[in-house]
Design brief:
The chain is mainly α. It has seven helices and no strands.
Length: 136
Amino acid sequence: MHVILQFIIIVLLAAVIFVLSSIRERRRMRRFLDRACAGSRWHRRFPQASKSEIREFLDIFVEAFGFRQRWRLYFAPDDRVMDVYSTLYPARGTPDGMELESLVRDLRKRYGVDMLSSWRADITLGEIYERTHNVA
């Protein structure tokens, strides 16, 4: 009985920590999440791209950052990757989840493009999309 009580307490603490961290993440990301869907901006910038191509690209991005998939269309082509990163990690020197490394790895795996050679601190999602899809 004592072991079961300890287990229940541990599960409840884990649930509370998860909920609090989700609330904190949502607050930090409010800048992006409180705006309208960016799907139309993607289609204006890349009219030849299909919805599925854009969503697949954005899925890679949100997965690398550990965001919910439903957040993908809140990110616009003009969003700088480092702005998203610094919003998630506002304190300099905070340990991260290797989101940038995951993004570069996943882009290489899916599109065969090494983003390290062209990475800049101000690179946007649209520029990365162009590079991965050879858009002129």
